[in-house]
Write a structure and sequence with these properties.
Radius of gyration: 21 Å
Order of helices and strands: EHHEEEHEEHEHEHHEEEHEHE
CATH topology of the largest domain: Aminopeptidase
Structural class: alpha+beta
Distance between the termini: 24 Å
CATH architecture of the largest domain: 3-Layer(aba) Sandwich
Length: about 375
C-alpha cells in the first residue's frame, strides 16, 4: 500500500528525501546528482533568509519501507506577516517512480497543504521558488546534458502531472551557442561592438565582490523593477538576493556577473556563471550559463542591452569557454529571442511551468491514499 507522509527537514526521513533522486536516474542519464548540501542550504530555515517570507512542507511516498517519491509545498507571504499569504502556492523537488497513484498522492498532499493555508492556485515545479532558477519540467531536449541552474527529469514526469490535472502556465526556452567557428556570431559581435562605440554613455563592468552588499542592492533593485510584471516574481529582500546569488555562482566567480550603467546609473545586468554541472561528470568546465538578463523597463527602448550583451559574450571568449547557454527565456520574450538568434544560438531545451486551481475537491481520500507517519528508515550507512 502506498502511504504519503509529511516529513521533517532533519533525521533519517530527510536523508531519504535528499538521496531519493539517485534511485530514479541511471548512470547513462544526462542527469547527475548535485551535491545534497545545496538542497540542505536551500531548505535550512536558519541559513536561507528566504524562509522569513515563506514556509514549506516536505512529503514522501512510501511503499512499505521503500521510498518511491518526494515533493515539497511552498507558500510565500509578505515579509513580517506570517499567516497572511499569497494566493499562489508552489510545489517542487518533485521526483517519482512511474506510478500514477504515487504521483497523484504526492501532488494532492502538496495541494491540500496549500489549500489549507489559503492558496487558490498551485504552480510548479520550483526548487523551491520561481525567483531565480531550476523551475519547470523538461518537455524537450532530453538528450541534452544537465546544465547548472536548470532542472532535469525523466520523460514520463509531464504525463504524471498532466494526468493529475496540472496544465501549462508558461514555457521557457534554453539556447546554446558556440563561439568558435560560428560566422553568425562573429558578424553579430562586430556589429554590436560598432553599435556600442557610438553610445559612449553606456559602461559595462563586472560585479564588484569587494562591495558585495552594495552590489546585491543593485541586483535587487534591477530585478525587482525589471520583473515587476512577471506573474510569479516576488519582491525579495537584500539578504535573500545575496544568498541566492551565491547559490548561482561561487564567491570566486561572482565577477562573472555584468552590470551596465548609463551616465553612472546601473540599469541592467547579466548574471552568468560557469556550468558547474560539468564538474559532476569529471570534466573541466567549458561552458558558461546566463541565469538572468534584465534591463530596467524605462531603458527597454534604448541601447542599454546591446553593450551588456556584447560585453557578456566577450567574457565568454576571454574566459576560454567554448560557448554559453542561456536558460529560461520566456516564450513571450520576443526581444531576447531575437537577440539570441542574431548571434547564432540554437534552441536545445524547453521547460514547462504548470498550474492548476485549488478547491475543496482536492482530497486524498478520492484516490484511496492516506497520510501516514514515515516508516522507520535508516540513515545512510546504518544497518
Amino acid at each position: 500500500m502506498i502511504q504519503i507522509a509529511s516529513i521533517p527537514a532533519e533525521g533519517p526521513a530527510f536523508e531519504a528525501f535528499l538521496d531519493f533522486p539517485e534511485t530514479i536516474y541511471d548512470r547513462n542519464s544526462p542527469w547527475r546528482a548535485r551535491p545534497s548540501v545545496r538542497t540542505r542550504q536551500l531548505l535550512d530555515q536558519a541559513r536561507n533568509p528566504y524562509w522569513r517570507q515563506a514556509e514549506y512542507a516536505l512529503f514522501m511516498a512510501w511503499e512499505g519501507v521503500r521510498p518511491i517519491g518526494r515533493i515539497s509545498a511552498v507558500r510565500r507571504f509578505p515579509a513580517g506577516q506570517r499567516g497572511v499569504g499569497e494566493t499562489d502556492g508552489f510545489f517542487g523537488f518533485f521526483e517519482c517512480i512511474p506510478d500514477l497513484a504515487a504521483a497523484r498522492g504526492l501532488l494532492q498532499a502538496a495541494a491540500n497543504w496549500l489549500l489549507e493555508r489559503g492558496c487558490t492556485r498551485m504552480l510548479g515545479p520550483c526548487q523551491p521558488t520561481p525567483d531565480y532558477d531550476s523551475y519547470g519540467l523538461l518537455i524537450e531536449g532530453f538528450d541534452q546534458l544537465q546544465v547548472s541552474g536548470e532542472s532535469f527529469n525523466p520523460e514520463y514526469y509531464p504525463g504524471l502531472c498532466e494526468q493529475f490535472g496540472l496544465r501549462k502556465e508558461r514555457d521557457f526556452i534554453s539556447v546554446m551557442n558556440r563561439v568558435d567557428g560560428n560566422p553568425i556570431y562573429d558578424r553579430a559581435m562586430a556589429q554590436m561592438g560598432r553599435y556600442g562605440a557610438r553610445h559612449s554613455a553606456a559602461r559595462v563592468r563586472d560585479f564588484d565582490v569587494t562591495r558585495f552588499d552594495e552590489e546585491v542592492e543593485v541586483v535587487r533593485h534591477i530585478l525587482t523593477q525589471a520583473f515587476a510584471d512577471r506573474p510569479l516574481y516576488a519582491e525579495l529582500d537584500g539578504a535573500t538576493h545575496g544568498f541566492l546569488l551565491q547559490s548561482i555562482a561561487r564567491r570566486e566567480d561572482l565577477h562573472c556577473f555584468s552590470i551596465v550603467e548609463i551616465d553612472g546609473r546601473p540599469v541592467g545586468l547579466n548574471l552568468t556563471a560557469p556550468n558547474y554541472d560539468e564538474e559532476l561528470r569529471g570534466r573541466p568546465i567549458q561552458w558558461i550559463r546566463s541565469n538572468e538578463f534584465a534591463v530596467l523597463p524605462e531603458y527597454h527602448r534604448t541601447h542599454a542591452a546591446v553593450p551588456l550583451y556584447h560585453y557578456s559574450w566577450l567574457k565568454v571568449q576571454r574566459g576560454g569557454y567554448a560557448g554559453a547557454s542561456i536558460g529560461y527565456l520566456s516564450e513571450h520574450s520576443d526581444s531576447m529571442s531575437r537577440m539570441t538568434e542574431k548571434v547564432g544560438s540554437v534552441r536545445v531545451k524547453c521547460h514547462r511551468l504548470y498550474q492548476m486551481p485549488l478547491n475543496v475537491s482536492t482530497d486524498p481520500i478520492s484516490i484511496g491514499l492516506k497520510s501516514a507517519p514515515p516508516p522507520d528508515v535508516c540513515a545512510p550507512g546504518e544497518p
